[in-house]
């Protein structure tokens, strides 16, 4: 039986709403075909004459007149439905207008005017000398703006950015309606300086007389600008690295990397080192078995190289001083901002040198590289974007024996966590002072380097902390407490990054080397070729490895080395 409320006069037609089996789409408000919501009843039957809305929550209930607050809610809901409907109608109208424009735009045909002077095909970088001429340039749409019947586009081609203006018919062709960021286009037109009060990359722009799309990019929800933004998390950015690296900052880092690599080569070539290419597939370790990536190589076990050092040593008698720029691989368990599983390793090896010569050489190589880099055309613009505060280090670099570093850490109350408590929760960890013989962990090393604020050559590490091949220091300086021996080894630490170079003199006596293998429990047979370097005319020699990504992170002021590789590799990341 139906009841009525004061606010829902019963004189209008009765409309039924069943919240369980009613349907807003298929219902008509009759008792046989009730609606699902009272809001839809109001929308379909209108506000007047006032409806007698009868509702029930389920089939087992009696029909009852809608209550006051439910009616208020239904009226609000009806307004919402009307608004939505209106919006949908407007969107439909816009879409059909766009479709009409697009259909019309299909009739607009653009043809290159053969009577115009021939255009010079060029890269953006070389445009300046063609000002006043007709030019032909291809690139990716970097920015895009429409204003009335004009389109302003900035294209990039890897050598620079160029502003292009499409006016009149050029902005009305079908392809113009589909154009979006990252599409590739070819433009032809007059290159002219921008008016004085305006600015554009290179100080000029092309007033196009012809253009065409080479490859479209997606519009809508897959468009380049909607795939990621500044708030996107590191995992999404890594998944979309192939798109992210098109952005100005990432591209600047990678361009700086290119210049840096050629500056390294220029610097080392200038110091009379020859570039060689050692293998990546090896069967020996260099920096400890724990970080080796092993794999099945036909019938045998092999590894991805951790360092090309041993190979470089064997090349000394053939080519003299050598270097390589090669990928090194480390199965690193350290998830830090300076560790990668694959990194670009610049390594060099020099014959007939002393430890002092080695450190002087590293300093020369680095300072010459920085001088060359900063003098490279285009680099000052990149540095202005990435690291305007960068100052090249002053020489000589500070040299600090390992024992002094330990004293500095104690004095400055930089402690380290004990081995027994390092895996416990933070509030249960125990911190103690460093003592001679301790490894200086990354955090402590960084605190010291940042506090000192300039490059530090930290040298003379205890032999038990270092690799098997390191030459021990001679004389009393080489003797530590309790029979500890120090090595002719050095790390170059840079503020903000920490260790960027690790180097040492190498054991050059064959018997001493065999004993060192034995001491570290490494079978020496697979190293026969390495030991032969000592047997067939040995010499005092040494070398170093420089992590290109760490060096770049320092120069380009990047928070992590992960940004300094084309496609970074770290635990859990090998795609794209
Ligand atoms: O100190 P490392 O391990 O020394 C060697 O590999 C020597 N065999 C090199 C040589 O003497 N030829 O590595 C040298 C440098 C480090 O200072 C660091 O810059 C970089 O390589 N490096 C890494 N960079 C990124 N991720 C990692 N996992 C790295 N491991 C080392």
TrEMBL record:
Matching NCBIfam families: asnS
Keyword rRNA-binding on entry: no
Main localization (coarse): cytoplasm
One annotated GO biological process: asparaginyl-tRNA aminoacylation
Region (Disordered): 1-32
Any Gene Ontology CC annotation: cytoplasm
Organism the protein comes from: Serendipita vermifera MAFF 305830
UniProt catalytic activity: tRNA(Asn) + L-asparagine + ATP = L-asparaginyl-tRNA(Asn) + AMP + diphosphate + H(+)
Similarity remark: Belongs to the class-II aminoacyl-tRNA synthetase family.
Gene3D superfamilies registered for this protein in UniProt: asparaginyl-tRNA synthetase, N-terminal domain, Bira Bifunctional Protein, Domain 2, Nucleic acid-binding proteins
UniProt superkingdom: Eukaryota
Residues forming coiled coils: 71-106
Keywords carried by this UniProt record: Aminoacyl-tRNA synthetase, ATP-binding, Coiled coil, Cytoplasm, Ligase, Nucleotide-binding, Protein biosynthesis
Name this protein carries in UniProt: asparagine--tRNA ligase
Documented EC number(s): 6.1.1.22
InterPro entries: Aa-tRNA-synt_II, aa-tRNA-synth_II, aa-tRNA-synth_II/BPL/LPL, Asn-tRNA-ligase, AsnRS_N, Asp/Asn-tRNA-synth_IIb, NA-bd_OB-fold, NA-bd_OB_tRNA
Ligase found in the keyword field: yes
Residue ranges constituting the Aminoacyl-transfer RNA synthetases class-II family profile domain according to the UniProt record: 264-571
Compartments, as annotated in UniProt: Cytoplasm
């Amino acid at each position: 039986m139906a009841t009525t409320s004061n606010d829902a006069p019963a004189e209008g037609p009765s409309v039924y709403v069943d919240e369980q089996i009613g349907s807003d789409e298929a219902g008509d408000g009759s008792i046989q075909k009730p609606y699902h919501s009272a809001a839809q009843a109001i929308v379909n039957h209108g506000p007047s004459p006032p409806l007698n809305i009868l509702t029930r929550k389920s089939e087992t209930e009696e029909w009852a007149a809608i209550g006051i607050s439910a009616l208020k809610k239904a009226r609000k809901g009806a307004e919402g439905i009307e608004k939505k409907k209106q919006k949908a109608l407007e969107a439909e109208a816009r879409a059909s207008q766009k479709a009409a424009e697009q259909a019309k735009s299909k009739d607009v045909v653009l043809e290159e005017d053969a009577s115009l002077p021939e255009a010079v095909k060029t890269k953006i970088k070389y445009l300046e000398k063609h000002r006043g001429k007709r030019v032909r340039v291809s690139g990716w749409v970097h920015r895009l703006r429409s204003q009335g019947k004009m389109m302003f586009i900035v294209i990039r081609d890897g050598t620079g950015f160029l502003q292009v203006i499409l006016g009149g018919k050029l902005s009305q062709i079908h392809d113009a309606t589909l154009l979006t960021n990252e599409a590739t286009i070819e433009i032809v037109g007059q290159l002219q300086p921008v008016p004085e009060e305006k600015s554009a990359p290179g100080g000029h722009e092309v007033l196009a007389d012809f253009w065409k799309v080479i490859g479209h990019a997606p519009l809508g929800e897959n468009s380049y600008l909607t795939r990621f933004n500044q708030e996107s998390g590191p995992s999404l950015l890594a998944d979309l690295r192939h798109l992210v690296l098109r952005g100005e900052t990432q591209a600047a880092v990678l361009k700086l990397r290119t210049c840096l690599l050629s500056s390294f080569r220029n610097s080392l070539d200038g110091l009379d080192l020859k570039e060689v290419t050692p293998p990546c597939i090896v069967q020996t370790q260099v920096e400890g078995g724990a970080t080796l990536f092993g794999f099945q190589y036909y019938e045998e076990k092999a590894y991805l190289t951790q360092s090309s050092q041993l190979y470089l040593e064997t090349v000394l008698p053939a080519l003299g001083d050598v270097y390589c720029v090669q990928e090194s691989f480390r199965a690193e368990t350290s998830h830090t901002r300076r560790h990668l599983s694959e990194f670009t390793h610049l390594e060099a090896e020099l014959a007939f040198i002393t430890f002092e010569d080695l450190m002087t050489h590293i300093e020369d190589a680095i300072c010459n590289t920085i001088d060359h880099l900063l003098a490279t055309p285009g680099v000052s613009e990149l540095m202005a974007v990435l690291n305007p505060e960068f100052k090249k280090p002053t020489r000589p670099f500070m040299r600090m024996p390992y024992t002094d570093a330990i004293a500095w850490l104690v004095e400055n109350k930089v402690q380290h966590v004990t081995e027994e408590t390092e895996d416990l929760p933070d509030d249960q960890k125990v911190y103690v002072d460093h003592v001679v013989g301790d490894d200086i962990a990354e955090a402590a090393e960084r605190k010291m380097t940042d506090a000192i604020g300039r490059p530090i050559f930290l040298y003379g590490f205890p032999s038990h902390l270092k690799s098997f091949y390191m030459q021990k220091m001679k004389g009393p300086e080489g003797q530590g407490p309790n029979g500890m021996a120090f090595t002719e080894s050095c790390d170059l630490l840079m503020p903000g990054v920490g260790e960027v170079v690790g180097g040492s003199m190498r054991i050059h006596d064959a018997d001493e080397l065999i004993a060192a293998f034995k001491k570290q429990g490494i079978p020496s047979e697979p190293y026969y070729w390495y030991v032969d370097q000592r047997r067939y005319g040995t010499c005092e020699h040494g070398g170093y490895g420089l992590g290109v990504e760490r060096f770049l992170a320092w120069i380009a002021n990047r928070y992590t080395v992960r940004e300094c590789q084309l496609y970074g590799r770290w635990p859990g990341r090998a795609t794209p």
